[in-house]
Amino acid sequence: MNLDKILDEAMKLDASDVHLICDNKPMLRIARKLVPVPNSKILTPEDMTEYYDYLVQGNVEKDEVFNNTRKLDMSYEYKDIRLRVNISLSDDVPLCTLRLIKNELPEYESLGVPDIVRRMTYQPQGLILVTGKTNSGKSTTLNALINHINENQNKKILTLENPVEYKHHSKKSLIVQKEIGKGRDSLTFSDGVKNSLREDCDILVIGEIRDKVTMEAAIEMAESRTLSNRNPSHKILCRNH
Q1: Phi/psi at 84 (nearest 5 deg)?
Q2: What's the pLDDT tens digit per position in 15-61?
Q3: Do residues 180 and 160 make contact, with C-beta atoms less than 8 angstroms apart?
Q4: Which of 56, 61, 114, 232 makes an SS bond possible with 183, Cβ 3.0 to 4.6 Å?
């Protein structure tokens, strides 16, 4: 079963994730339950190699990252949706996990998040952590918050992500999105955080904090004050596991 047909079924059934694992049928996560793709067959090692080639599309840098680290995080566009893709190995055969990202973000007010969080974004300085278990809505919450700021405040927002999930466009705010990784916009999250001090941003969004260096850089950024009266302080929004 080719990947286009699997993705079409995922979109049709409103799945949040697609799991492609050798010796199993393609599986969809629908309302938190795993169900097989209708009329699908057991996936073979050859199928998994074909899916890998389909997603990487001969990109030498992505292939090098996968071969060196045995994993790859990337984004992929299919029709009118974006996918967050993770490729890893099991028994030396690629396996793929694809998260479907809807183009339309929910209104921030509809998420049930306490209003104090929204009000915190109006503070001149500070650090907001968005945490939770897998599939709990961290990315949706964070991006809905970014969109709310973008629509209501006059700020420069810089995001550091791996990969970029929701594509934002400047509205009342000026927004810049950078993808982290080899051959992308910044090599590491910590490099991106450190360079943001020179980019005159009001709000820095860090997609992941997984190491001490990035955490220390984020805290330093949140506490820093520039010499310019135009940008006396910073706010940091962080998504963390």
Answers
A1: -95, 120
A2: 999 999 999 999 999 998 999 999 999 999 999 999 999 999 999 99
A3: yes
A4: 61
- CA–CA dist 55, 88 (Å, integer): 13
* CA–CA distance, 7 with 83 (Å, rounded to integer): 10
Q: Where are the domains of the chain?
A: 3-101, 108-240
* Euclidean distance between CA atoms 33 and 26, whole angstroms: 13
Q: Flag whether the pTM goes above 0.85.
A: no
Q: Which CATH number fits domain 108-240: 3.40.190.10, 2.30.110.10, 3.40.50.300, 3.40.140.10?
A: 3.40.50.300
| Spatial separation of the C-alpha atoms in residues 190 and 215, rounded to whole Å | 8
